[in-house]
From TrEMBL:
GO terms for molecular function: kinase activity. It comes from the Bacteria. The lineage of its organism: Bacteria, Bacillati, Actinomycetota, Actinomycetes, Mycobacteriales. The chain crosses the membrane at residues 373-395. Keywords: ATP-binding, Kinase, Membrane, Nucleotide-binding, Transferase, Transmembrane, Transmembrane helix. Residues 307-345 are annotated as: Disordered. Pfam families: Pkinase (PF00069). This is Protein kinase. It comes from Mycobacterium deserti.
Length: 403
């Protein structure tokens, strides 16, 4: 999912309210299947992330059924490593998910900013990621699309996996999407390429490829097309990370090679199994604790800055702009005693424009300068008067001696 400059074009969804409850604010990112927005739950006054699906999915009953089922299943997952799902629905032509808003950025954005990571940082990313996947695997859920774009890092250093169930919902609906293939090709397991089947070991394979990328800064397979990238893993093993970059411990080589074995039976059974092995490696190597930094230049941060600037602009200009024709502006309710309901005088916080061809601001500053000049002269006169009085008193006191 690529970041989007919200200033490029007007978004018709911005400012709308989904299902009478969720206000759509600023765009965070967009992809082939959906767009993610910063939003607000008006009922609970809670910031949320809104994943709004494309309208082509609205008319597919099978997709909507699977979409609702997957959303309910993911909403039951309780783990710090999983982005919480709060609600789901459809508004007009747009199915949508309401999720926890993670202020920070994606692992993809962090990789672009900082490049390969040392082993202790890789462990800090993989540990909560595997913890979240382990909870899902125990509940019978498979992610199917583990990749850096779906790993979120908060400003507090929390690592969370997002987008459970969407790939399965799309696949079951028989709706093709080249963007799904494009975003997943580098991390697909061999069985997903050959038969489309996916299980916990498929997620393990994707995490193994992700670990390889974190250590080396690149994915193990490349090609001219997404299909070429996908099919390379059918006949080739993922190489050990240490063959591409120095300083990778042998234990991490073994972790990656086991997770990415072409035969699913040779991999870790699930995320819990791989997580246990990672924990043992951390203890063996005595790796230091590490707080994963959020990317600085992230789409989420950009949307937050835009949202804040829009809020300040609205607060500054809201009372000056005339309401659209036929629309009564909303005003806060003012409660008065029953016997004290007097007409309210209009309030003016400022005046714009010119007077006699001169900017009004010039009058304001001229008044300020005049006040300062007047104050200066008053102080000067008082000081001079004080000096004269002091001189007269001194002269009167000593006049006898002078005579």
């Amino acid at each position: 999912m690529s970041s989007v400059d919200a200033y490029r074009q007007f978004d018709p969804l911005a400012g709308s309210v989904l299902d009478g409850r969720y206000r759509v604010d600023t765009l965070i990112a967009t992809g082939g299947m959906s767009a993610v927005y910063r939003g607000l739950d008006l009922r609970l006054d809670r910031p949320v992330a809104l994943k709004v699906m494309e309208s082509r999915y609205a008319g597919d009953t099978q997709f909507l059924t699977r979409f609702q089922r997957e959303a309910r299943a993911v909403a039951r997952l309780k783990n710090p490593g999983v982005v919480a799902v709060y609600d789901q629905g459809i508004d007009g032509q747009h199915p949508f998910l309401v999720m926890e808003l993670v202020e920070g950025g994606t692992l993809r954005e962090l990789l672009r900013e900082r490049g390969p990571m040392p082993p202790h940082a890789v462990a800090a990313v993989l540990s909560p990621l595997l913890g979240g996947l382990a909870v899902a695997h125990r509940a019978g859920l498979v992610h199917r699309d583990v990749k850096p774009e779906n790993v979120l890092i908060s400003d507090d250093g929390d690592v969370k996996i997002a987008d459970f169930g969407l790939v399965r919902a799309v696949a079951d609906a028989k709706i093709t999407s080249t963007s799904v293939i494009l975003g997943t090709a580098a991390y697909l397991s061999p069985e997903q390429v050959s038969t489309g089947d996916a299980g916990p070991r498929s997620d393990v394979y994707a995490v193994g490829v992700l670990a390889f990328e974190l250590l080396t800064g690149a994915t193990p397979f490349t090609g001219d097309t997404t299909l070429a990238v996908a099919y390379q893993r059918m006949d080739n093993d993922v190489p050990a990370p240490s063959t591409l970059i120095g300083g990778v411990p042998a234990q991490f080589d073994e972790l990656v090679l086991t997770a990415t074995a072409r035969d699913p039976a040779d991999r870790y059974a699930d995320a819990q199994d791989m997580g246990d092995e990672l924990e043992a490696i951390v203890e063996e190597l005595r790796l230091p604790a590490f707080r994963v930094p959020a990317p600085r230049n992230s789409a989420t941060h950009a949307s937050a800055a835009l949202y804040d600037s829009q809020g300040r602009q609205q607060a500054t200009t809201e009372h000056l702009a005339p309401p659209p024709v036929g629309q009564v502006p909303r005003q806060p309710t003012r409660e008065l005693p029953r016997d004290d309901r007097q007409p309210v005088e209009p309030e003016y916080s400022g005046v714009a424009g010119q007077f006699a061809g001169i900017d009004v601001d010039e009058f304001h500053w001229a008044r300020q300068r005049a006040k300062r000049v007047l104050l200066f002269w008053v102080v000067a006169v008082l000081t001079l008067t004080g000096l004269i009085a002091a001189g007269a008193w001194t002269l009167g006191t000593n006049i006898g001696a002078l005579i």
